[in-house]
Amino acid sequence: MQNIKKLTRIAIYTRVSTDRQAKENQSLENQRYTILKWASENNAEVVKTYEDAGYSGFKGIRPNFEQMLRDVESKTIDIEYIVTYDLSRFSRKEIKRISSELILEQAGVK
Questions:
Q1: Which stretch of DSSP H or E encloses residue 110?
Q2: Which of the four pLDDT bands, split at 50, 70 and 90, describes residue 1?
Q3: Looking at the domain assignment, is residue 93 inside a domain?
Q4: CA proximity to 52, closest of 79, 87, 21, 13
Q5: Domain count across the chain
Q6: Cα separations (Å) of 25 from 2, 19, 51?
Q7: Is there a domain that residue 1 lies in?
Q8: In CATH, what number is assigned to the domain containing residue 15?
Q9: pLDDT digit string (tens) for 48-62?
Q10: What is the pTM of this model?
Q11: Which residues contact 96 (CB under 8 A, 6 or more apart)?
Q12: Is residue 3 situated within a structural domain?
């Protein structure tokens, strides 16, 4: 009998705030590629990808980040984890990171 592993359901969040980041190793494409490679090596199914281009982690609202939190909170998306290229892509402001993590925790998402 074949042993079937359960896929871990994830969402990807990528972000660049400057042209310099986009041209360097942190481009949206590079972030997405790195995470997709990791997902294929770790039995993870990508349910949805959220991307914000040109939005700072320090200021303002990041539209797709906020949409991701709304989707998680409303159970519009069924995932276990949100995966980012680097923690700095998730948030640069500690208070925003903590409040976002609380929303995720309450929805059972890591």
A1: none
A2: very low
A3: yes
A4: 13
A5: 1
A6: 40, 11, 16
A7: no
A8: 3.40.50.1390
A9: 999 998 877 677 689
A10: 0.85
A11: none
A12: no
